[in-house]
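If it is no trouble, can you show me the amino acids of a protein and the C-alpha cells describing how it folds?
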Amino acid sequence: MTGLPSHIFFCLQFNDILGKVNSMTKSKNGNVFIIGPMGAGKTTVGKKLAKKLNKKFIDSDKEIEKSTGASISLIFDVEGESGFREWESKILAELAKENDIVLATGGGAILSESNRKILMKKGLVIYLEASPELILKRTAYDNSRPLLDTEDRAETIKELLKTRIPIYENCADYTVNVDKKSADRISSEVCDWIDTK
C-alpha cells in the first residue's frame, strides 16, 4: 500500500489520469502540420489524418493557388522561386492562425526560418520521410513540379533531400517513414503517437 489515506490516494490517481486526458485533448484539439518532400504523400495522408482526428484538412499549395488565381508552375515562371516562397510564407502565416486543422505544407516551406518558427510554435509537426527512389517513382510523370524540371530528375531529388532532410528532422515532433506503407497505416501511426501526447 501507499501509506496515504485512501481518499488522498484516489485524488492523486484521478489528477494523474485527468492530466493525461487534458494533455491528449490539447494535442488533438490543436493544429497538426505535415512536412516532408514532394511525393511523400502529405496531401493523401493529411486527408486521412484529418478524418481520424475530426479536424479540417488544408493543403497550403491549393490555398496559394486560390489566393493568387495562378498555378504553382505559373507563379514559378512569372515570379521565380523567391516570389513563390514569399506567397508561401504569407499564406502559411495566415493558415497557422486557425485551430483544429491538419495542414499539408509544400516541400520547401521549411526553408524559411520564420515558417519553421510558426510551424513549431502553432502545432505538432509531422515529418513524412521518403526515400529518393520513392519520390522519383511518384513524380516520374508529374510535370507540375517546377523544381524537378531538370535534365536529371533523380539527381535533383537527391540534392534537394541533402539540403532539406536536416531541416525536416530539426523541425519535426514526430517522424514516420512512408516507404512501403499505405496512407492508412501512416495516418494510424501518427494518430497512435498523438494519443501519447
In short: Residues 6-29 form the longest helix (24 residues). The two ends are 29 Å apart (CA to CA). Strands lie at 31-35, 56-59, 101-104, 123-129, 174-177. Helices lie at 6-29, 42-53, 60-68, 72-95, 113-122, 132-139, 153-171, 183-194.
